[in-house]
Specification:
Layout (H helix, E strand, L loop, with lengths): L8 E6 L5 H14 L4 E7 L4 H4 L7 E5 L9 E2 L5 H7 L6 E3 L6 E2 H14 L5 E4 L4 E3 L9 E2 L2 E5 L8 H14 L16 E4 H15 L3 H6 L6 H13 L1 H4 L1 E4 L4 E4 L7 H9 L7 E4 L7 H20 L1
Parallel strand pairs: 1-2, 1-7, 2-3, 10-12, 13-14
Antiparallel strand pairs: 4-5, 5-6, 7-11, 8-14, 9-10
Helix pairs in contact: 5-8, 6-8
Protein backbone atom coordinates (compact mmCIF):
# COMPACT_ATOMS: atom_id res chain seq x y z
CA UNK A 1 0.00 0.00 0.00
CA UNK A 2 1.56 3.30 -1.08
CA UNK A 3 1.93 6.29 1.20
CA UNK A 4 -0.55 8.11 -1.06
CA UNK A 5 -3.30 5.93 0.42
CA UNK A 6 -2.61 7.52 3.82
CA UNK A 7 -3.38 11.05 2.62
CA UNK A 8 -6.99 10.89 3.80
CA UNK A 9 -8.83 9.47 6.79
CA UNK A 10 -12.38 9.03 8.04
CA UNK A 11 -13.99 9.32 11.44
CA UNK A 12 -16.73 6.74 12.01
CA UNK A 13 -19.40 7.15 14.69
CA UNK A 14 -22.33 4.86 15.47
CA UNK A 15 -25.00 6.70 17.43
CA UNK A 16 -28.74 6.76 18.13
CA UNK A 17 -31.48 9.07 19.41
CA UNK A 18 -30.58 8.54 23.08
CA UNK A 19 -27.14 10.07 22.42
CA UNK A 20 -28.37 12.91 20.22
CA UNK A 21 -27.29 15.71 22.57
CA UNK A 22 -23.81 14.34 23.28
CA UNK A 23 -23.39 13.62 19.57
CA UNK A 24 -24.13 17.28 18.90
CA UNK A 25 -21.18 18.18 21.14
CA UNK A 26 -18.97 15.71 19.26
CA UNK A 27 -19.92 17.05 15.83
CA UNK A 28 -19.29 20.63 16.90
CA UNK A 29 -15.85 19.65 18.20
CA UNK A 30 -15.06 17.77 14.97
CA UNK A 31 -15.91 20.84 12.93
CA UNK A 32 -13.78 23.00 15.21
CA UNK A 33 -10.70 20.83 15.62
CA UNK A 34 -10.43 18.08 12.99
CA UNK A 35 -8.48 18.72 9.79
CA UNK A 36 -10.86 19.25 6.85
CA UNK A 37 -9.37 16.39 4.84
CA UNK A 38 -10.63 13.98 7.52
CA UNK A 39 -14.27 13.14 6.78
CA UNK A 40 -16.91 12.03 9.27
CA UNK A 41 -19.38 9.18 8.72
CA UNK A 42 -22.26 9.11 11.21
CA UNK A 43 -24.34 5.90 11.26
CA UNK A 44 -27.70 5.92 13.03
CA UNK A 45 -30.87 3.77 12.93
CA UNK A 46 -33.00 4.59 9.89
CA UNK A 47 -35.81 5.94 12.07
CA UNK A 48 -33.34 8.41 13.68
CA UNK A 49 -31.98 9.89 10.43
CA UNK A 50 -34.33 12.94 10.58
CA UNK A 51 -33.09 13.71 14.12
CA UNK A 52 -29.46 13.72 12.99
CA UNK A 53 -30.00 15.48 9.66
CA UNK A 54 -28.89 18.80 11.15
CA UNK A 55 -25.34 17.42 11.45
CA UNK A 56 -24.96 16.72 7.72
CA UNK A 57 -22.32 18.84 6.00
CA UNK A 58 -19.78 18.65 3.16
CA UNK A 59 -17.45 16.72 5.50
CA UNK A 60 -20.11 14.70 7.35
CA UNK A 61 -22.53 12.13 5.91
CA UNK A 62 -25.46 10.60 7.77
CA UNK A 63 -26.13 6.97 6.85
CA UNK A 64 -28.21 4.14 8.30
CA UNK A 65 -26.90 1.42 10.55
CA UNK A 66 -29.17 -0.97 8.67
CA UNK A 67 -26.99 -0.43 5.59
CA UNK A 68 -24.08 -1.97 7.51
CA UNK A 69 -25.87 -5.24 8.27
CA UNK A 70 -26.95 -8.00 5.88
CA UNK A 71 -30.64 -8.33 5.10
CA UNK A 72 -30.88 -11.44 7.22
CA UNK A 73 -30.34 -9.36 10.39
CA UNK A 74 -33.87 -8.51 11.58
CA UNK A 75 -34.27 -5.96 14.39
CA UNK A 76 -36.78 -6.99 17.04
CA UNK A 77 -39.38 -4.21 17.56
CA UNK A 78 -38.84 -2.64 20.98
CA UNK A 79 -40.30 0.50 22.62
CA UNK A 80 -38.43 3.79 23.03
CA UNK A 81 -35.35 4.00 25.31
CA UNK A 82 -37.45 5.62 28.05
CA UNK A 83 -40.00 2.81 28.02
CA UNK A 84 -37.26 0.18 27.86
CA UNK A 85 -35.84 1.59 31.10
CA UNK A 86 -39.29 1.55 32.75
CA UNK A 87 -39.98 -2.01 31.64
CA UNK A 88 -36.51 -3.34 32.39
CA UNK A 89 -35.84 -4.18 28.74
CA UNK A 90 -32.36 -4.14 27.15
CA UNK A 91 -30.94 -0.67 26.45
CA UNK A 92 -29.63 -1.84 23.09
CA UNK A 93 -31.50 -3.51 20.26
CA UNK A 94 -31.87 -7.24 19.73
CA UNK A 95 -31.57 -8.88 16.30
CA UNK A 96 -32.81 -12.20 14.95
CA UNK A 97 -31.00 -14.10 12.20
CA UNK A 98 -31.67 -17.48 10.54
CA UNK A 99 -28.10 -18.57 11.37
CA UNK A 100 -27.70 -17.84 15.08
CA UNK A 101 -29.31 -17.35 18.44
CA UNK A 102 -30.69 -13.82 19.02
CA UNK A 103 -27.90 -11.29 18.63
CA UNK A 104 -27.45 -8.57 21.23
CA UNK A 105 -27.24 -5.00 19.99
CA UNK A 106 -23.71 -4.64 21.36
CA UNK A 107 -22.55 -7.52 19.14
CA UNK A 108 -24.44 -6.10 16.15
CA UNK A 109 -22.80 -2.71 16.67
CA UNK A 110 -19.35 -4.31 16.57
CA UNK A 111 -20.25 -6.01 13.30
CA UNK A 112 -21.37 -2.58 12.05
CA UNK A 113 -17.98 -1.07 12.90
CA UNK A 114 -16.16 -3.74 10.93
CA UNK A 115 -18.55 -3.32 7.99
CA UNK A 116 -18.26 0.49 8.09
CA UNK A 117 -14.48 0.23 7.87
CA UNK A 118 -14.63 -2.35 5.08
CA UNK A 119 -16.82 -0.12 2.91
CA UNK A 120 -15.08 3.19 3.67
CA UNK A 121 -13.15 4.97 0.93
CA UNK A 122 -10.26 5.94 3.24
CA UNK A 123 -7.39 3.68 4.25
CA UNK A 124 -7.33 5.16 7.78
CA UNK A 125 -10.53 4.87 9.83
CA UNK A 126 -10.83 6.33 13.32
CA UNK A 127 -13.66 5.00 15.47
CA UNK A 128 -14.96 7.74 17.75
CA UNK A 129 -18.01 7.23 19.96
CA UNK A 130 -20.58 9.99 20.23
CA UNK A 131 -19.76 10.72 23.89
CA UNK A 132 -16.30 12.02 22.93
CA UNK A 133 -15.31 15.59 22.14
CA UNK A 134 -12.17 16.82 20.43
CA UNK A 135 -10.28 19.35 22.52
CA UNK A 136 -7.36 20.22 20.24
CA UNK A 137 -6.56 19.81 16.53
CA UNK A 138 -6.49 16.27 15.12
CA UNK A 139 -4.15 15.93 12.15
CA UNK A 140 -3.12 13.03 9.96
CA UNK A 141 0.28 12.94 11.65
CA UNK A 142 -1.49 11.85 14.86
CA UNK A 143 -2.60 8.73 12.97
CA UNK A 144 0.47 7.83 10.90
CA UNK A 145 4.20 7.58 11.37
CA UNK A 146 6.73 6.92 8.61
CA UNK A 147 4.07 5.49 6.30
CA UNK A 148 2.51 3.29 8.99
CA UNK A 149 -0.86 3.56 10.72
CA UNK A 150 -1.30 3.79 14.47
CA UNK A 151 -2.36 0.80 16.58
CA UNK A 152 -3.14 1.29 20.26
CA UNK A 153 -1.30 -1.57 21.97
CA UNK A 154 -0.93 -1.66 25.75
CA UNK A 155 1.10 -4.62 27.08
CA UNK A 156 -0.50 -4.26 30.53
CA UNK A 157 -3.15 -6.95 30.98
CA UNK A 158 -6.57 -5.84 32.21
CA UNK A 159 -7.42 -8.20 35.08
CA UNK A 160 -11.08 -8.64 34.23
CA UNK A 161 -12.92 -11.83 33.30
CA UNK A 162 -14.59 -10.07 30.37
CA UNK A 163 -11.21 -9.25 28.82
CA UNK A 164 -10.05 -12.86 29.21
CA UNK A 165 -13.22 -14.00 27.44
CA UNK A 166 -12.69 -11.47 24.63
CA UNK A 167 -9.10 -12.62 24.09
CA UNK A 168 -10.14 -16.26 24.08
CA UNK A 169 -12.90 -15.48 21.56
CA UNK A 170 -10.42 -13.66 19.30
CA UNK A 171 -8.16 -16.71 19.36
CA UNK A 172 -10.99 -19.07 18.40
CA UNK A 173 -12.24 -16.80 15.64
CA UNK A 174 -8.73 -16.38 14.21
CA UNK A 175 -7.71 -20.03 14.51
CA UNK A 176 -4.96 -19.39 17.06
CA UNK A 177 -3.86 -21.62 19.95
CA UNK A 178 -6.02 -20.94 22.99
CA UNK A 179 -5.03 -18.11 25.33
CA UNK A 180 -6.89 -15.71 27.58
CA UNK A 181 -4.32 -12.97 26.87
CA UNK A 182 -2.38 -12.48 23.65
CA UNK A 183 0.21 -10.11 24.98
CA UNK A 184 -1.51 -6.74 24.81
CA UNK A 185 -4.77 -4.86 25.28
CA UNK A 186 -6.28 -2.91 22.37
CA UNK A 187 -9.47 -1.32 23.75
CA UNK A 188 -9.38 2.45 23.82
CA UNK A 189 -11.19 5.57 22.69
CA UNK A 190 -10.29 7.03 19.27
CA UNK A 191 -9.28 3.62 17.94
CA UNK A 192 -7.43 3.78 14.62
CA UNK A 193 -7.81 1.00 12.06
CA UNK A 194 -6.18 0.44 8.68
CA UNK A 195 -8.77 -0.62 6.11
CA UNK A 196 -6.49 -3.06 4.28
CA UNK A 197 -5.79 -4.82 7.60
CA UNK A 198 -9.51 -4.96 8.37
CA UNK A 199 -10.24 -6.53 4.98
CA UNK A 200 -7.59 -9.17 5.68
CA UNK A 201 -9.15 -9.74 9.11
CA UNK A 202 -12.64 -10.45 7.79
CA UNK A 203 -11.17 -12.74 5.12
CA UNK A 204 -9.42 -14.66 7.91
CA UNK A 205 -12.66 -14.90 9.92
CA UNK A 206 -14.46 -16.37 6.90
CA UNK A 207 -11.60 -18.79 6.21
CA UNK A 208 -11.44 -20.10 9.78
CA UNK A 209 -15.23 -20.37 10.15
CA UNK A 210 -15.87 -21.71 6.66
CA UNK A 211 -18.79 -19.29 6.31
CA UNK A 212 -19.67 -15.60 6.05
CA UNK A 213 -17.67 -13.64 8.66
CA UNK A 214 -20.86 -11.98 9.87
CA UNK A 215 -22.39 -15.37 10.64
CA UNK A 216 -19.27 -16.30 12.58
CA UNK A 217 -19.54 -13.15 14.69
CA UNK A 218 -23.32 -13.41 15.11
CA UNK A 219 -22.69 -16.85 16.62
CA UNK A 220 -20.11 -15.44 19.06
CA UNK A 221 -21.97 -14.10 22.11
CA UNK A 222 -18.90 -12.41 23.64
CA UNK A 223 -16.15 -10.71 21.66
CA UNK A 224 -14.55 -7.27 21.43
CA UNK A 225 -13.92 -5.83 17.98
CA UNK A 226 -10.84 -3.85 19.05
CA UNK A 227 -9.23 -6.91 20.63
CA UNK A 228 -10.13 -8.97 17.55
CA UNK A 229 -8.45 -6.44 15.22
CA UNK A 230 -5.44 -6.01 17.50
CA UNK A 231 -4.78 -9.73 17.97
CA UNK A 232 -5.11 -10.26 14.21
CA UNK A 233 -2.71 -7.41 13.42
CA UNK A 234 -0.23 -8.51 16.09
CA UNK A 235 -0.35 -12.31 16.00
CA UNK A 236 -1.58 -13.19 12.51
CA UNK A 237 -0.55 -10.41 10.14
CA UNK A 238 2.40 -8.97 12.04
CA UNK A 239 2.71 -5.23 12.58
CA UNK A 240 5.41 -4.67 9.97
CA UNK A 241 3.56 -6.61 7.27
CA UNK A 242 0.34 -4.83 8.24
CA UNK A 243 1.93 -1.40 7.92
CA UNK A 244 1.19 -0.46 11.52
CA UNK A 245 3.13 1.08 14.39
CA UNK A 246 2.22 0.38 18.01
CA UNK A 247 1.66 2.96 20.75
CA UNK A 248 0.63 2.40 24.35
CA UNK A 249 -0.43 6.05 24.69
CA UNK A 250 -4.10 6.88 24.27
CA UNK A 251 -5.16 9.82 22.14
CA UNK A 252 -8.07 10.42 24.53
CA UNK A 253 -8.46 11.47 28.16
CA UNK A 254 -11.23 9.14 29.31
CA UNK A 255 -13.70 8.90 32.16
CA UNK A 256 -14.92 5.34 31.75
CA UNK A 257 -17.31 5.11 34.69
CA UNK A 258 -18.54 6.89 37.79
CA UNK A 259 -19.80 10.43 38.19
CA UNK A 260 -17.33 13.09 39.33
CA UNK A 261 -17.10 13.16 43.12
CA UNK A 262 -16.83 16.89 43.62
CA UNK A 263 -14.50 19.62 42.44
CA UNK A 264 -11.28 17.88 43.49
CA UNK A 265 -12.12 14.81 41.43
CA UNK A 266 -12.91 16.97 38.41
CA UNK A 267 -9.70 18.98 38.87
CA UNK A 268 -7.65 15.76 39.00
CA UNK A 269 -9.27 14.57 35.78
CA UNK A 270 -8.41 17.80 33.96
CA UNK A 271 -4.88 17.80 35.41
CA UNK A 272 -4.30 14.36 33.88
CA UNK A 273 -4.60 15.80 30.36
CA UNK A 274 -1.41 15.14 28.38
CA UNK A 275 -0.20 17.10 25.34
CA UNK A 276 -0.87 14.06 23.13
CA UNK A 277 -4.53 13.87 24.17
CA UNK A 278 -6.60 15.25 21.29
CA UNK A 279 -10.01 14.25 22.67
CA UNK A 280 -11.90 13.83 25.93
CA UNK A 281 -14.47 11.16 26.80
CA UNK A 282 -17.14 11.09 29.48
CA UNK A 283 -19.09 7.91 28.85
CA UNK A 284 -22.75 8.53 28.10
CA UNK A 285 -24.10 6.11 30.78
CA UNK A 286 -22.56 8.42 33.43
CA UNK A 287 -25.49 10.44 34.73
CA UNK A 288 -24.61 14.08 34.15
CA UNK A 289 -26.53 17.12 32.88
CA UNK A 290 -25.52 18.11 29.38
CA UNK A 291 -24.42 21.54 30.60
CA UNK A 292 -21.99 19.92 33.07
CA UNK A 293 -20.60 17.66 30.36
CA UNK A 294 -20.10 20.67 28.09
CA UNK A 295 -18.43 22.64 30.87
CA UNK A 296 -15.90 19.87 31.56
CA UNK A 297 -15.13 19.54 27.85
CA UNK A 298 -14.57 23.32 27.75
CA UNK A 299 -12.19 23.07 30.73
CA UNK A 300 -10.25 20.33 28.96
CA UNK A 301 -10.17 22.44 25.78
CA UNK A 302 -8.83 25.44 27.70
CA UNK A 303 -6.11 23.33 29.32
CA UNK A 304 -5.17 21.89 25.93
CA UNK A 305 -4.86 25.42 24.54
CA UNK A 306 -2.64 26.40 27.47
CA UNK A 307 -0.41 23.39 26.83
CA UNK A 308 -0.14 24.33 23.16
CA UNK A 309 0.83 27.89 24.07
CA UNK A 310 3.45 26.87 26.66
Amino acid sequence: MSDASLATASLVTCSYSGDLDVCRLLCASVDRFVAPEIGHKLYVPAKDVPLFAEFASPRRTIATQESLLPRWFWKVPLPSPAWRARLGLPRRNVYLTPFSAPVRGWIAQQIMKLAATAQDDAEIVVHVDSDNAFIRPLRLDHLTQDGRVRLYRNPQMVEMESHRAWHAAAGRLLGLPHADFYGAEYIDQLVVWRRSVLLALIARLAEVAGRDWRVALARTPHFAEYILYGVFADRVRGLEAAGLFASDQSLCLSRWSGAFDGAADEDAFIAALRPDHVACLIQSPIAMPLAERRRIFERATARAAAQEAA
